[in-house]
Amino acid sequence: MSGRTWTFLLLFLAGEVVGVGIGEWYFHLFLKAVPPVALSQFNTQAARIAYWLYGAGVGVGFFLWAWLGIAVNSLSRMGNKSDEKS
Q1: Stretch 72-85: mean pLDDT, rounded?
Q2: I want to staple 27 with a disulfide (CB 3.0 to 4.6 A). Which of 33, 51, 64, 72 is the partner?
Q3: Cα dist from 54 to 72, 73, 80, 84, whole Å
Q4: Closest CA to 51 of 30, 76, 77
Q5: CB-based burial of residue 54 (10 Å sphere; 0-12 exposed, 13-18 middle, 19+ buried)?
Q6: How much is the pTM?
Q7: Cβ partners under 8 Å of residue 27, min gap 6
Q8: How confident is residue 86, by pLDDT bands cut at 50, 70 and 90?
Q9: Is 63 within 8 Å of 10 (Cβ atoms)?
Q10: Is 47 helix (H, G, I), strand (E, B) or coil?
Q11: With 0-12 CB in 10 A as exposed, 13-18 as middle and 19+ as buried, what is 55?
């Protein structure tokens, strides 16, 4: 695989790790906010999965945002090269 493929793969994995970490952090905030009397085992596990999925979505958003930044940087470099030739 090329270096660019490894870069995007690592960027995606890093985004997902950070996103799921954010989801886990929100889950712990949820546990602190909701009284234990109102929580059952099912509700707790369903909330954990929901927050992990939310975090995975945030990770994809981070990846797309970084990919957009790489694309804009590449386009601006191409524009600068064409300006230098003129």
Answers
A1: 76
A2: 51
A3: 27, 29, 39, 45
A4: 30
A5: middle
A6: 0.78
A7: 47, 48, 51, 52
A8: low
A9: no
A10: helix
A11: buried
pLDDT one-digit tens code per residue, 52-64: 999 999 999 999 9
Residues 6+ apart with CB under 8 A from 58: 18, 19, 22, 23
* Block residue for tokens 């981070």: 62
Q: Could you give the CA distance from residue 41 to residue 39 in angstroms, rounded to a whole number?
A: 7
Give me the DSSP letters along 52-83: HHHHHHHHHHHHHHHHHHHHHHHHHHHHHHHH
**23 CB-contact burial (10 Å; exposed 0-12 / middle 13-18 / buried 19+):** buried
The label of the residue with tokens 């975090």 reads 55
Task: For residues 73 and 68, give the distance between their C-alpha atoms in angstroms, rounded to a whole number.
Answer: 8
Quick one: tokens of 77? 């470099």
Percent over 90 (pLDDT), the chain: 66
